[in-house]
Design brief:
The protein contains 19 helices and 32 strands. By secondary structure, it is α/β, with parallel strands linked by helices. Among the domains are: 69 residues, Luciferase, Domain 3 (Luciferase, domain 3); 125 residues, GMP Synthetase, Chain A, domain 3 (2-Layer Sandwich). The strands form ten sheets. The protein has a seven-stranded mixed beta sheet, sandwiched between helices. Strands 7-6-8-11-12 form a five-stranded parallel beta sheet, sandwiched between helices. It has a four-stranded antiparallel beta sheet with strand order 23-24-26-27. β4 and β5 form a beta hairpin. The termini are far apart. The relative contact order is 0.10. Bound molecules: adenosine-5'-monophosphate-propyl ester. Adenosine-5'-monophosphate-propyl ester binds next to α11, β22, β26 and β27.
């Protein structure tokens, strides 16, 4: 068998789960044996959730790129690692073999070194979905620099905040990115982000769209020139090499910023060994990957799903990963199906929001597309409604492909709760059972564990798995407060869940002030802060409401001092402000101007009531007696959009 740690039956799952809980150290060391170590670990695990302090594979030495690339070269150097499907279907597909990937990653590593990047330095990456993005990530990992990828939909201000928080000295970007019919001028956004920045020394710019850019002498360099120079340095007599930096198991691998219920986004930190093992282990088991399978994860590498299941997990397993530059609906809604047909995709992993949006186009886009290579379907990012689940099952999987509903988070590195394709039972809209090593518990608001089934409560995890976040960059206390202080000795996920008689979990959504809009995580406080930046706005409150396609939409209640122009003008101004401060992904779907907000005497906004109004409730608001001015509720309800 290709993967000695692959679970192939329900009994094997049960046995693996039991062992992982009873003797995690023995369990994970038997998995870790199958990776390439420069030096093996002295101890498997050290942890407490108080500080928190979590360390896996202590004193083990490795480099993740040797695991993702070098170890596969002798046997499968000519096998495709990445198949790149460009935005424009007329453009040339690029098939990147493991040999080619090795060469490019060595070149990037050399290029970074030439530009002064050292182990531990933070490199911000702001690129579209081009293979060079994967090379950039892996090139950083090869020299031990910490990458921080920022999604292309974030604004200059968001990038500036992240650059500052990470103390990044280097940026890798592109002139522009294609997204359907749009071109995003990435380098121009970076230039705006760099106004006033004092830490960034070098910006490396890849050419993709030929968008006009201003290259600043001494700071900005072209990727192509630098890579060409690096090529002559890493290739001698037809042999390519760039020695990978020896990393400690617990050295940081990357930072990825994510939103929470308060303040600015925080930099979730993942480390080398635990993250690698977790992504590879979950990839192989959840999707039941078999050597030679073509895996297509439709996520963007700007989010954790792309990090874990386009780049690191698949490559650590020696898989072939499809990377798609475009959007599902351009030039038509048959794009995914065409890619499945063209590249003979075996595993398709996408988000419920994409499924719902494609459902809306009916079955016509499926006509003439051969989907018979598909073996496994997956979803991620938000709860999947039964209607979408059944459509996916019937029309894409043709009733013969298991669907894995994978629940996880940026902080968890990889999947924590999911069925294993064809191995453990699926249940529509239930994530089902925990992965080996994952011990979920449901607690009530006092933190008391709810035992017995069925049950409903807040979802926590009792013990660490290898892929758990280690800290939030530069602010460990924030990590402790956010995840480990709500309930003692538990990691709190921020999600609510149900558990059925069989122990299956169904994630019901966030229980904190975090929205999930089209699978993107957005903090209500963040959107409020952005709206409040507008000079005419006095105060605002943002809540989520059910949205047919996006899962959740953003509903903003705004108090204005005075209005410049009409309500519609003011709305446009607010949308523009949010776009500038966060990015277009955080633009409210609805903006209602209100005379006041429902507040308690202590000044706390009663969001519960605002949520009810946004959901369409017009009378039953529950107890409003603690409100300073109960009359304002009626008024807001009358003006509902
Ligand atoms: O609420 C859960 C939801 O997405 C949140 C994590 O968001 P993010 O860190 O951006 O990562 C998304 C991709 C892993 C979770 O707290 N979520 C994720 N997957 C599911 C889900 N909700 C229900 N079912 C899922 N399968």
């Amino acid at each position: 068998m290709a993967y000695p740690y692959q679970i192939r039956s329900l009994d094997e799952y049960k046995a693996a789960y039991e062992k992982s809980v009873n003797d995690p150290e023995a369990f994970w060391s038997s998995v870790a044996e199958h990776f390439h170590w420069r030096k093996k670990w002295d101890r498997v695990l050290e942890w407490n959730f108080k500080e928190p302090n979590v360390k896996w594979f202590l004193n083990g030495k490795l480099n993740i790129t040797e695991n993702c690339i070098d170890r596969y070269l002798p046997e499968m150097g000519e096998k495709p690692a990445i198949i790149w499907e460009p935005n424009n279907p007329e453009d040339r597909v690029r098939v990147v073999t493991y040999n080619r990937l090795h060469k490019r990653v060595c070149q990037v590593a050399q290029m970074l070194k030439n530009n002064g990047v050292k182990k531990g330095d933070r490199v911000c990456i702001y690129m579209g979905m081009v293979p060079e993005l994967a090379y950039a990530i892996l090139g950083c990992a090869r020299i031990g620099a910490i990458h921080s990828v920022v999604f292309g939909g974030f604004s200059a201000q968001s990038i500036a905040d992240r650059l500052e928080d990470a103390g990044a000295e280097f940026i890798i970007t592109a002139d522009g990115a294609y997204r359907g019919e749009k071109v995003i001028p990435l380098k121009n956004v970076i230039d705006d982000a760099l106004i006033g920045n004092r830490t960034v020394k070098k910006v490396i710019v890849y050419t993709r769209t030929r968008t006009a850019v201003s290259m600043i002498k001494g700071r900005d360099v072209w990727w192509e020139d630098e890579m060409e120079h690096a090529e002559t340095q890493v290739e001698k007599g037809g042999v390519v090499s760039f020695p990978a930096e020896e990393m400690d198991a617990e050295d940081p691998l990357f930072i990825l910023y994510t939103s929470g219920s308060t303040g600015k986004p925080k930099g979730v930190v993942h480390t080398c060994a635990g993250y690698m093992i977790w992504t590879a282990y979950t990839f192989v088991n959840v999707f039941q990957y078999q050597p030679g399978d073509i895996h297509f994860c439709t996520a963007d590498i700007g989010w954790i799903t792309g990090h874990s299941y386009i780049v690191y997990g698949p490559l650590a397993a020696g898989a072939t990963s499809v990377m798609f530059e475009g959007v599902p609906t351009w030039p038509n809604a048959g794009r995914f199906w065409e890619i499945v047909d063209k590249h003979k995709v075996n595993i398709l992993y996408t988000a419920p929001t994409a499924i719902r949006s494609l459902m809306g186009f009916g079955l016509k886009p499926l006509e003439g597309k051969d989907l018979s290579t598909l073996k496994v379907l997956g979803t991620v990012g938000e709860p999947i409604n039964e209607e979408a689940w059944h459509w996916y099952d019937e029309h894409i999987g043709k009733g013969r492909c298991p669907i894995v509903d994978t629940w996880w988070q940026t902080e968890t590195g990889g999947t924590l709760i999911s069925n294993l394709a064809g191995v453990t039972p699926a249940k529509p809209s239930w994530a089902t059972l925990p992965m080996p090593g994952v011990q979920p518990v449901l607690v009530d608001e006092n933190g008391t564990e709810i035992t017995g089934n069925p049950a409903a409560g807040n979802l926590c995890i009792k013990a660490p798995w290898p892929g758990i976040l280690r800290t939030t960059y530069g602010d460990h206390e924030r990590c402790r407060k956010t995840y480990f202080s709500t309930y003692e000795d538990l990691y709190f996920t921020g999600d609510g869940a149900l558990r059925d008689e069989e122990g299956n979990y169904r994630i019901t959504g966030r229980v904190d002030d975090v929205l999930n809009v089209s699978g993107h995580r957005i903090g209500t406080a963040e959107v409020e802060n952005a709206i409040n930046m507008h000079s005419d706005v006095v105060e605002s409150a943002v809540v989520g409401y059910p949205h047919d396609i996006k899962g959740q939409g953003i509903y903003a209640y705004v108090i204005c001092q005075h209005m410049h122009g009409s309500q519609d003008d003011m709305r446009q101004n607010i949308l523009q402000t949010v776009s500038r401060i966060i990015g277009p992904i955080a633009k409210p779907d609805k903006i209602q101007f209100v005379p006041g907000l429902p507040k308690t005497r202590s000044g706390k906004i009663m969001r519960r009531i605002l949520r009810k109004i946004a959901e369409g409730e017009s009378h039953n608001f529950g107890d409003t007696t603690t409100l300073l001015d109960p009359a304002v509720v009626e008024e807001i309800a009358k003006g509902k959009l």
